[in-house]
Design goal:
Helices cover about 70% and strands about 10% of the residues. Helix 2 runs antiparallel to helix 3, helix 3 runs antiparallel to helix 5 and helix 6 packs parallel to helix 7. It is flat.
């Protein structure tokens, strides 16, 4: 028992000695760190002063010299004495330089900073001499006679002074970074020593509370083995609690931590499996949707082709029947109804076919340099026939420049877009006017169709460009349409690398606009 107590006493004395040494080191490092922080604050203040000096040289001194040179040019008249300005400029510069030298003389910086300050002082002295010479009588004629050599010498001094002040900022910042690194290292050392102090105090208190080290060996070994097993990914590890003291509490806390971590890991693995299963299902659903969309597109294209042939035959026969014999008014009326409805169905099938081609990526454009004026005239001529169907008066106006540029586009498809926008505007406008406006700049041309119709609420602005979508069921019954015209028009514009948008207010009217690039290079207009 005596040997055990002696060993514990020796251990305690050694532990206290180490603790005292660590405390002394912490105090020393902390004091050194405080001194370094003071030096860092002074250096950062010098850095700010150096930046002010650099900015003053770059802007104030340079601008003042340029003003003097302009006053001394041969066309500016007689020279004006600017000695007062030179003295004020020099005083300001010297004050900024003196603030920096005060910190440099205190020994905070290396010799490179001092040499750089001496160089700046020398350059400034040469600069002031040159500035005074510029203000001396007869210098204007001297500059006029000697030409660019005198001006170049003065400009070189200005540039050297500017670069020297920037180099000074870099040197001071370098010293500041060095001090910051030392402060960081000292902070790490203080933290390390503090942690060491805490560990040593804990060990000392642990040893003081224990009477027999041999009695602690087995529980510690069991706990250490449990920790090693746990860190080897064996999350089911548990350590038996054999003592009802602090070590027993530590062992119980370890077991509790291991149990919770095992539970959380199990939950995480379960959630990961669920997420992986959901991701797989989403991929399968996406593949099925893409396949269904492809089948739908193929079906629409096939059915459209199959329906167009008999419809063309019906329309053709209804138009040629009157040629083979007389028909009365009733028969002519029904033949016209057959032709009109057949053409309506044919237009619908053509829209479906165009949509299928766009979705399948098979709609090929045939671009060429097209005359916009001719395109507008053709569209207006076709649209005028729709105005006669309106009960009330409805005006159609065109606003465009007399000379329009040629545009690289598929004129047939853009004509289809304009006809769709104009027919919609006339369809949904009871009275008022419809305006087609064409404008252009250096790179793009913009078409805008404005009406005074029923308008569209803001919440439906995006929906009108979706396939088979009508804004309201009531409108679907009152106004004919399938909801394909605008989506196809928008996609045709986008195939031209263009953009279509809508501006509308209910009961006020709507403006559908789209812009197109002029094309590779600017093609001249027909009248240029």
């Amino acid at each position: 028992m005596i040997r055990l107590r002696t060993r514990l006493l020796i251990n305690n004395v050694l532990t206290l000695t180490i603790v005292l040494l660590i405390i002394v080191l912490v105090i020393v490092r902390t004091r050194t760190n405080v001194q370094l922080m003071r030096q860092l604050n002074q250096i950062e203040a010098s850095s700010r002063q150096a930046r002010e000096l650099s900015l003053y040289v770059h802007y104030n001194t340079h601008d003042m010299m340029m003003q003097r040179l302009q006053k001394l040019s041969p066309t500016s008249g007689p020279a004006i004495n600017n000695s007062r300005e030179i003295i004020d400029d020099a005083n300001t510069f010297n004050q900024l330089l003196a603030d920096i030298k005060g910190n440099v003389n205190s020994g905070l910086f290396n010799q490179q900073v001092a040499r750089q300050l001496d160089r700046i002082t020398s350059l400034r002295y040469q600069y002031d001499i040159a500035a005074i010479d510029l203000d001396s009588p007869g210098i204007s004629s001297y500059i006029h006679e000697r030409g660019s050599l005198a001006l170049q010498a003065i400009d070189n001094l200005d540039n050297e002074l500017d670069q020297a002040s920037r180099d000074l900022v870099l040197l001071i910042d370098s010293d500041a970074n060095t001090i910051r690194e030392r402060v960081r290292v000292y902070n790490q050392q203080v933290v390390t020593l503090s942690l060491s102090l805490g560990v040593m105090v804990a060990l000392m208190l642990s040893l003081v509370q224990r009477v027999s080290s041999s009695a602690l060996g087995e529980p510690f070994q069991a706990l250490l083995a449990g920790v090693q097993s746990f860190t080897s990914s064996n999350l089911t590890t548990r350590v038996p609690v054999v003592r009802q003291d602090e070590l027993g509490d530590l062992t119980a806390a370890f077991n509790e931590m291991a149990m919770r971590l095992e539970h959380q890991t199990t939950q995480l693995m379960t959630q990961t499996k669920i997420a992986e299963s959901a991701r797989t299902e989403a991929q399968l659903a996406r593949a099925a949707a893409e396949e269904a969309n492809a089948l739908k597109t193929t079906f629409l294209a096939t059915m459209s082709h199959e329906l167009r042939t008999p419809l063309n035959s019906i329309i053709g026969f209804s138009q040629i029947i009157p040629r083979y014999g007389p028909v009365n008014e009733r028969q002519r009326h029904w033949l016209q109804r057959i032709t009109s409805n057949g053409e309506h169905l044919l237009g619908l099938i053509n829209d479906i076919l165009d949509l299928a081609k766009v979705e399948a990526g098979r709609l090929d454009l045939v671009p060429e340099w097209a005359d916009v004026s001719e395109l507008v005239d053709s569209v207006i001529s076709t649209t005028l026939g729709l105005l006669g169907e309106k009960e009330h008066g409805l005006d159609l106006h065109v606003e465009c420049a007399e000379s329009m540029p040629r545009v690289w586009m598929d004129a047939t498809r853009i004509r289809q877009v304009l006809l769709n926008l104009l027919s919609n505007a006339i369809k949904f406008t009871v009275e008022g006017e419809v305006i087609l406006k064409v404008s252009f700049d250096e790179t793009t041309i913009t078409f805008a169709v404005t009406d005074t119709g029923i308008g569209i609420a803001p919440e439906f602005h995006k929906a009108v460009f979706e396939e088979f979508h009508q804004v309201q069921d009531g409108l679907t019954r009152e106004y004919s349409g399938t909801g394909l015209g605008l989506p196809i028009a928008k996609r045709l514009v986008e195939l031209h690398d263009g953009h279509m948008w809508l501006e509308s207010t209910p009961d006020v009217g709507s403006t559908f606009s789209f812009s197109l690039p002029l094309g590779p290079g600017a093609a001249p207009g027909p009248n240029e």
